[in-house]
Amino acid sequence: MWLSSKKQTKKPPNVQPETSLLRLYHRFRALDRNKKGYLSRVDLQQIGALAVNPLGERIIDSFFPDGNLRVDFPGFVRVLAHFRPVDDDDSGMRDPKQPEPLNSRMNKLRFVFQLYDLDRDGKISRHEMLQVLRLMVGVQVTEEQLESITDRTVQEADEDGDGAVSFLEFTKSLEKMDIEQKMSIRILK
Amino acid sequence: MYITFDPGRRLCALETLLEADVWHTIAHGVGEAHSMGFPMLVPFSPWCWLLLLVVLKCSEASSDLNKSTNSTAQHEPNVRFAAASSEADEKISVFALDYDYVQIPYEVTLWILLASLAKIGFHLYHRLPGLMPESCLLIIVGALVGAIIFGTDHKSPPVMDSSIYFLYLLPPIVLEGGYFMPTRPFFENIGSILWWAGLGALINAFGIGLSLYLICQIKAFGLTDVNLLQNLLFGSLISAVDPVAVLAVFEEARVNEPLYMMIFGEALLNDGISVVLYNILIAFTKMHKFEDIEPVDILAGCARFIIVGVGGVFFGIIFGFISAFITRFTQNISAIEPLIVFMFSYLSYLAAETLYLSGILAITACAVTMKKYVEENVSQTSYTTIKYFMKMLSSVSETLIFIFMGVSTIGKNHEWNWAFICFTLVFCQIWRAISVFALFYVSNQFRTFPFSIKDQCIIFYSGVRGAGSFSLAFLLPLSLFPRKKMFVTATLVVIYFTVFIQGITIGPLVRYLDVRKTNKKESINEELHIRLMDHLKAGIEDVCGQWSHYQVRDKFKKFDHRYLRKILTRKNQPKSSIVSLYKKLEMKQAIEMVETGILSSTAFSVPHQAQRIHGTKRLSPEDVESMRDILTHNMYQVRQRTLSYNKYNLKPQTSEKQAKEILIRRQNTLRESMRKGHSLPWGKPAGTKNIRYLSFPYGHPQPIRRDPKVADFTGDDSSDSELPSIMFKPYPRTGTLQERRLTQEIIPMKSFPRGGKPCHFGYPRNTSQEEHVGAGRREALRPKPLFHAVDEEFESGEESEEEASAGGSRWSAEHRPSKQYHRSHSPLLQRK
């Protein structure tokens, strides 16, 4: 699996030119403007299209877990690995002792969960939900409307009534959705 | 010929009466509709009546023509001025009507106007464009006009003939297709596109022709006089598809990019190939009316096909380069820039046609070549003009062709032959299916991302015929084709069938194939999360960038930068006046934005539902519905990464506003955090940056990168005396900056993560290289078109600087007037 070969940061010598890993490596090099060997926030912020994405900053933050200021190539790949399309034969033959691959449904959901849960307490509080909603909605929606939508959202997912959405509740509320297809990027196959 | 006073007055009186009556009924109709509470009928009724009015005027005009013909039949058909002198003894008529003089332009204008009104109505009812392609509408309008002309027994309607079509109506359509074609995906998929479009057209043409010939041999159908050549010719003209017309219908299904390109590319090349085939076969028909065709001739035909195609492309490229070169020098007379673009494209078409090469391919190649360089050289307004004018010309052409089609539908010149027509329909579908599945099976072996069966079904079903087939059928020479009427009828039937039936059902088909579970209503929870995931996916795709077969492209890009750009694009001299002009413009824009309340948080509208739902209060279904409405209408759209091309319209700029809002909000939050007093590494007070936006094209904002030497200018600008400006004078660091023309200073700002993690500002400075001359100028002074801005074209290290710097300067911007609201009490404001 190409995930395991991510440890080398030098160009792998005998990989076919068409693998997505090599392309990601080129992309990493292209983003790393000053040839530092790692990416900082600034490098990612210079992707113009991310600037007009409402979740741009959060997406960038997800590349820097645990307060790091730099991400090297393995870290870069690790984040992107969440978006690999799920092969059908992966789940059948998987050895249960091995850790779950990064692009499993659980891990994809966990990735999304982390976009909401900024303080990493394992729950999406109402306040955090409100902030995400605010990011995604145009300016003509009033605060009151936003708050009532937030209340409704939390209320729909919250089962144990603590006013926040835990990861399990989050997963359960999205069980009908085809997460694997929504969070897969074809070119990363 | 004059009509004297009395009939004219009668006519005028009639018309005014009619108008009064019509307006009266419009008012009534509107009132009734309101009272009955059907708001959607209201936009319908006025334009409906307007349409009727125009139609009546048209029929008045044509009946008037008949009157004049009848009444003055005995006079000589004099030229207007000669008539005046010969009738010198009559009284001078105060009112006179001379219809013949203006007949053709008048009627043509009326038709175009009618079609435009119909389009307005079409788009007023907002669900309609998603249901059927716009060609349906045009055909209906054409049929209507045809019915009017037939009904009023118009003696001499304007008619399309070969030279009008090939010289005036066809070039704009092809030019528009070539100009708006996205070049990067086109060239990435060019192998598949050429394989599919070229071979597909040939297979279709010959397949349909041969099958029909076999059918014609059957004596029972009465078609034995149609020989092989005629059938082949018919096959070639009926295989000219126009699939772009249906693209708008399934646009929202997020068709993936390669599929989009295949459809687009096929439409682009298909016309050219059909016309080339058509001409070759006509030449054959003329040559071999009496003899048999020899193999030598067939070989010559094939060779000619290739030469015609390649030669046309070659011509087009040459003309493209010439025009790009000329636009390099038109700084001071930017008004003629659109003229140059259009004239050179047209010239390429004509020059190719002179040598019997393919003018269509020439004009396409010219547009593709020219586009990149011209867009860099040409001023912003010229660029907009070119785009809009191109759309306008092509839509006028197409409208006219459809109207001619409608006119000839409703007429007496039909020959209906059940066998021929039915088998034509059947064979069209069969051969298209064969060509799609066979050709894609082969090309899938060589592609990195093969096309799925689903994609192939979509391509098969999008084989909608359009104006091209009709024109070619209509222009068949009657001398060589005694059964021309039958061909025309068959073509019309195929067009009607494909446009209406396939056009209307392709939308549901694509949605069905997409297997989206849209039948159940999603909860608010799910809607929110789905949208979040879409945004996330779009964002990650942007991080991954565009991948392609980069070796060949890189080589071309290097060649392009090293040689071509130097020759063809302007030397950039950002005069301070130009830069300051843009500053002025964006300041105006900024003021506008503030005034319309985008930034101010107090400008939010009063909510309709004032309830605040506390805790676990149960919500009524109406509340949920209204919430859902709020969400669907107000959530930001996901950035469309797949291409979006509408044949009849330029893309509306809704995403611009969204992008502005997002950026401004982001800058606000950044500034909010900065106000808390984080210090910068170089010791300047926080928030002393002053970089502003440029106008936003298609959702990609481009702040101007500030040239330090004109930094002082903003202080003197009188229009913003109330808005305190904060100047950033990076002199200690930029000693040599002023000498360098294109230095870019990028001062990206980073959001402050929660939890009080330490911040840092990066201050990388990009020094430009010679090769970025064009790019730098482009960023500074002009918003880039969508396709350029979207793709990050370069994979190699040096090129990524350009893109990265573009990205940096693009978004690292701040909105100056907003400071007025948020920082009016801050002592920092007073610094100049």
Automatic annotation (TrEMBL), chain A:
Per the annotation, which location comes first and is thus the protein's main one?
A: membrane
Compartments in which it is found: Cell membrane; Cytoplasm; Nucleus
What SUPFAM superfamilies would the database entry show? EF-hand
One of the record's GO cellular component terms:
nucleus
UniProt KW keywords: Calcium, Cell membrane, Cytoplasm, Lipoprotein, Membrane, Metal-binding, Myristate, Nucleus, Phosphoprotein, Protein transport, Repeat, Transport
Q: Which GO terms describe its molecular function?
A: calcium ion binding
Protein name per Swiss-Prot or TrEMBL? Calcineurin like EF-hand protein 2
| Record organism | Neovison vison (American mink)
